[in-house]
Specification:
Blueprint lengths: L2 E6 L15 H5 L2 E3 L4 E6 L5 H12 L16 H7 L2 E5 L6 E5 L3 H25 L5 H19 L8 H12 L5 E5 L7 H18 L2 E6 L2 H4 L5 E6 L2 E5 L5 H11 L1 H6 L2
Parallel strand pairs: 3-7, 3-8, 5-6, 6-7
Antiparallel strand pairs: 1-2, 1-4, 8-9
Helix pairs in contact: 2-3, 4-5, 6-7
């Protein structure tokens, strides 16, 4: 476990009616104490779990897997502001890791594709304009960079299914001890693929000692052994057993007797 404690320092009184300071969660926020290497943020839409995850990403300075840098993404403006008032304690500092949201993945895959295309164009330009010397030396660096991207991500991640590409991304990027912040990965993954990602995460925790913080609605994710669930509800955060979450209770009720649940809608 790398991150051990998160607190919120006093924020500007004049901003109390602006996002994210107007969120009940932020007004009531006290602290989060991390005790496991796999931590889940669970709660309804709008409960603030993603905002806290994004603020941790902004504070930590980990790269974002998407079309923009953290500081340039307008959708993360509130999280960047909140990060300035966080107080985070680490058991171990690290610059490794990343922040990824499922909705950003298509943009990331497209950026990899465009980068490979740009390198192809550069290779052709060198071949057309090169005069004198050993062209192989000149091309070697460019082709090496291109081949490294293809080996890591495949030639065209966009041609894979969303789930396949998403898993390929995680397999390629979770390589060292770090802090990995993931927002709603189940949006891109079938139940079987969710289990595949969980298997990878548990393997990497064991191998590297990395810390994974995952915002999710999936009972499959939050059921992983030796993890912790932070439940965001009515402007408060509490640590609970996953079976205490509404997500688990509702999913179980539907699977046990969908007729009863549907009649109550």
């Amino acid at each position: 476990m790398i991150l051990s404690e998160l607190r919120l320092r006093n924020y500007p009184e004049e901003d109390k009616d602006k996002y994210p300071w107007n969120l009940p969660l932020i007004k009531n926020f006290e602290e989060l104490l991390f005790e496991k290497s796999i931590s889940f943020f669970v709660g309804e839409n709008g409960s603030g779990k993603s905002t806290i995850l994004e603020a941790i990403a902004a504070y930590s300075g980990v790269p974002i897997a998407g079309s923009f840098r953290l500081e340039d993404d307008e959708s993360l403006e509130g999280a960047n502001s909140l990060a300035n008032y966080l107080s985070i304690r680490y058991k171990e500092k690290t610059h490794h890791g990343f922040f990824v949201r499922a909705e950003d993945f298509i943009g990331f895959a497209r950026s990899i594709k465009n980068e490979i295309k740009a390198l192809d164009k550069e290779i052709e330009e060198v071949k057309e304009t090169f005069t004198g010397g050993d062209i192989n030396l000149t091309l070697g660096t460019i082709e090496g960079e291109k081949n490294s991207l293809i080996k890591r991500y495949s030639k065209n991640m966009e041609e894979m299914s969303h789930g396949e590409g998403f898993l390929k991304f995680f397999t390629s990027r979770i390589t060292a001890k770090g802090i990995y912040l993931i927002d709603e990965p189940e949006a891109a993954l079938s139940p079987t693929r969710q289990l595949s990602l969980l298997s990878l995460i548990m393997e990497k925790v064991k191998e590297t000692g990395s810390h994974f913080i995952i915002a999710t609605h999936s009972p499959i994710f939050m059921s992983v052994p030796d993890s912790e669930v932070f439940y965001f509800e009515e402007g408060q955060v509490s640590k609970v057993d996953y079976k205490e979450t509404e997500h688990y209770k509702l999913t179980k009720a539907i699977l046990m007797d969908p007729g009863i649940v549907m009649r109550e809608l």
